[in-house]
Amino acid sequence: MNKKKIILAYSGGLDTSIILKWLQDNYSAEVIAFTADIGQEIDKKKIIKNAKLLGAKKIIIEDLKDIFVKEYVYPMIRGHAIYEGSYLLGTSIARPLIAKRQIEIAKKFKAFAVSHGATDKGNDQVRFELGYYYFGSKIKVISPWREWKFSSRTDLIKYAKKNGISIPKDKRGAPPFSIDDNLFHTSTEGKMLEDLNNNPPEYLFQRTIAPEKSPSKPTIVKIGFKNGDPILLNKKKYSPSKLLEKLNNLAGKNGIGRVDLVENRFLGIKSRGVYETPGGTVLLFAHRAIESITLDKKTMHIKEKIIPRYAELIYNGFWFSKERISLQKIIDAKKSRVKGEIKVKLYKGSISIAGRKSKRSIYSKKKSSFESGRIFSKKYVKNFIKVAAKKLGK
């Protein structure tokens, strides 16, 4: 008789390795381990070896990097999504893709359930499960952190030792920080970071050089846009994932993209995270710059008004919601105009404009110049101010 099947979102880390074993023991089911390659640091041979040792019936590793960047990261960049003024939503934007693909695999193998490794205090459990419910409402969701008796990672380490599960170490030989990474970002949480007075140690950072240790000579980068998306980097055309990968390297070497943030989670808990989003930080800056010369004032201001809500929806896991999709349509209404090249200077943690050009530019040197003739009559300007004054509400 065939056993029931569970599809586990498997990273190969401590938590999901323990979950792989725990699911077999507690559900008498076969576990299929699914790893989405979205640009994280990944050792495929090690993942396969460990999953087999832990009893996985099948291991699926899929390269989703281009889909991730083109269909998730780029739309978010077009929306200038920043949560609470700092966070570029690197973890948030990855979960919907993983959840969608996980449900597709569950349907293919007729699995009765899907499972994830997100903790019971975090946002990721919401993000995963909203995706599960959207694409597979009849498939059972197993959230081990809400079911098992373990209450901390210390408990997990004890369980791992008891069951012969290898425990990873950080660069100092201790159990690691909680780390999530993909092609867009790296986030680090836990351990000493839970004390807000502690400055993050330099060994914590994965993909950025400390700004003060970055090169003393600036790096000039040219980014070419078409239909609102970057397609050229320094005049060369790349796939979405390759462009972001190369930009990550250029920006990371110049100390770009570090954020130390205390954020408000969806469930109401305040949490500290250290984020690195080098290439994404540059892309967002450059996209704003190209829009500044290609979009009209009304369109830009409408976008600015919806950014906080758009970012919050992504943060809270509502990527597939009707509201997010409706806002995306507003964001993308004139993306065909967003075409041209932005030249930026990267230097010791900072980004500045080094040049802008576009055949779709609506900037007029003649109109804006202090040296050219008047565009408006004196009478027009005087009446304009009088009408505006009536809105003071006196």
Task: Describe the protein's architecture and organization.
The protein is α/β, with parallel strands linked by helices. Helices cover 39% and strands 20% of the residues. It folds into 2 domains: 5-71 and 94-173, Rossmann fold (3-Layer(aba) Sandwich); 186-357, Argininosuccinate synthetase, chain A, domain 2 (Alpha-Beta Complex). It is built from 13 helices and 14 strands. The strands form 3 sheets. A 5-stranded parallel sheet has the order 3-2-1-4-5, with helices on both faces. A hairpin with a 2-residue loop joins β9 and β10. The longest helix has 20 residues, at 297-316. The protein is elongated and about 85 Å long. It starts with a strand and ends in a 5-residue tail after the last helix.
Outline the fold blueprint.
Blueprint: E1 5-9, H1 14-27, E2 30-37, H2 44-53, E3 58-63, H3 65-78, H4 95-108, E4 113-115, H5 124-135, E5 140-142, H6 144-147, H7 153-162, E6 178-181, E7 186-189, E8 219-226, E9 229-233, E10 236-237, H8 240-252, E11 258-264, E12 270-276, H9 278-294, H10 297-316, H11 322-331, E13 340-347, E14 350-357, H12 365-368, H13 378-389
Parallel strand pairs: 1-2, 1-4, 2-3, 4-5
Antiparallel strand pairs: 6-7, 7-12, 8-9, 8-13, 9-10, 11-12, 13-14
Helix pairs in contact: 3-8, 4-5, 8-9, 10-11
